[in-house]
Structure prediction request, 309 residues.
Amino acid sequence: MMTTENLTTELSTAEALDERVPGDLIATSKGKPWRDLLVQMYVRRPVQESLLIPAVPEPLIVWVVSGAARVEERELGAAWMANEVRAGDFFLQTSPRPCELRWRTLTDEPFRVMHVYLGLPLIHRAVGDLHGADAAPVQLREVSGGTDAVITNQLSILRDELLNRRHPSAMLVQGLASSLAVHVVRVYASETPVAATPHGGLPAFKMHRVLNAMQERLHQELDLSRLAREAQLSEAHFSRSFKKSTGFAPSRYLVRLRMERARRLLRETGMPIVEVGLEVGYTSPSHFAQVFRREVGALPSDYRNAGNN
Prediction:
């Protein structure tokens, strides 16, 4: 079982938590100054058709650093809900279920976002500080496209420590992390008591490690035992936890990742379709076309042609 102490140690020592989702990772927090806090900066592509955000136990803040976009989100299989967001707006995700995003930018300015995962020990300390050591866990509410001057101020300083300081100040980062956790618990706790739904999924640092391993080997067959080792779980436990976090079995999620990369290569490069299929693990062009059509709704050639019109 993952204990609070284990989680604290893992978050503070994870040195390669690259989410590897569409877009370019600019920076990721590493080392002891970032204990109980995982911060990553991305520049996103102008158009994203589908991006699955896994459900993890830690609250996730997504803060828009620059640019503007129409962002749509939904729980898997539900109706899309749209928000237009600009620099300073934020999302707070706390749901025990994965969600799906898509977006289209509204300006030529780069669409940069910062992901901030607040570790459970940090949230527990904030709850204890505000409500007493014996206080029950607090359920946080979801926020989509909100504005909050305190969050903007604190994340701006964290961004500077992440991007511009060769040796980030542990005292400053930890102080900001504690302040941010207290603010989130104080302002965004659900007003009506809600029975917490067990996540049963992977913690953020393990999910990022697993996704990184999957992205690095898209062209290879799924190696479930290797992914389970990355998560430090048995294969059976890993498979159950992964599905809890993503809504998909590892094999089905691998297909999603392959199709996402294939769509990007078809949109953004002139790579022959046969080579695109090989790049994402399909040695048979007909099999690649069949899977692509099933998952995307069009043949690879039609998808590329539609994007060029």
About this structure: Residues 204-308 form a domain with the Arc Repressor Mutant, subunit A fold (CATH 1.10.10.60).
